[in-house]
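Input for the complex:
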Amino acid sequence: MESFELASLRAFVLGCSAIGAGIAMIAGVGPGIGQGYAAGKGCEAVGRQPEARGTIMSTMLLGAAVAETTGIYGLVIAIILLFANPLVDLIQK
Amino acid sequence: MDSGLDFNNHIIATFKLFGIDIRFTDTILNTWIIMAVLILFAIVVRIKLNKFKDVPETGFQNFIEAIVEAMDSFVSSNMGIKYKYFGNWFFGVFAFVLFSNLFGLLSFRAPTADLATTGALAFTTFILIHFMGIMTAKGSYFKAYLEPVPFLLPINIISEFATPVSLSFRLFGNILGGTIIMGLVYSLPAYVKVGIPAALHVYFDVFAGALQTFIFVMLSMAFIGDKIPEEMKN
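Predicted:
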């Protein structure tokens, strides 16, 4: 049976972690803008040069994947905060 | 968690080896199942290979030749015709990652939703990048770290280590994100679950899975090809 103080401390850390996970997912804005820009430019390129469709498509996917990386970092941090929280273990003592 | 949300990597058994706990998890079991399927398929193809004619007669031979040729042209368009033999390696990676990502469809846990699997795959790419860099570029491989100015050496080294990290996290994050969302949907009350999981499976497992496989293999090729000097590619 843990003391009331320790339990409220844990609750505080868990609540802050949930807020932190939510804030971490703001990182999703960047890849959204980046991938949309890549897709738009890809459409323009296909419109201008329809015969190079295959090359444009694979280059665009490559660029979109690289733009996605920062968003995935944010997602990984949010997942760690929610499901494998390292901060709660710090207040065991 | 007692809300029915379940996407964890279950530990099936624990062994003790030299005082270290070895955990036999879902990931290992599913990896072995996929390996068994792929090895069995490879053996079947090898046996049938003896009966292949110069001009394909069976649909099976057409199919095998089509996928091998697609992979070879994919590699040679990314890394140069001289390095077509990398198709042998990348075909294996492609098949393994694709089968892993699609494994979620059979209600198993995808092995690629574990950082250990994707980390191992990205580590082999890391080794290949630098092995090929040293083998082909020799002195200019090391010189490239001092460019554009020697002052940037630490940043160049960090960016080399960031390559496998971003490669593994991209695949891991995409597949794990899909797995968690599927787990959330499956923990909903039964009347919400009619038809919705099927549509989500098509997106997260089939579409995202195939796309991430393609991107993983293509980025690996691009990173390895990047270290090979341009004049050695033909």
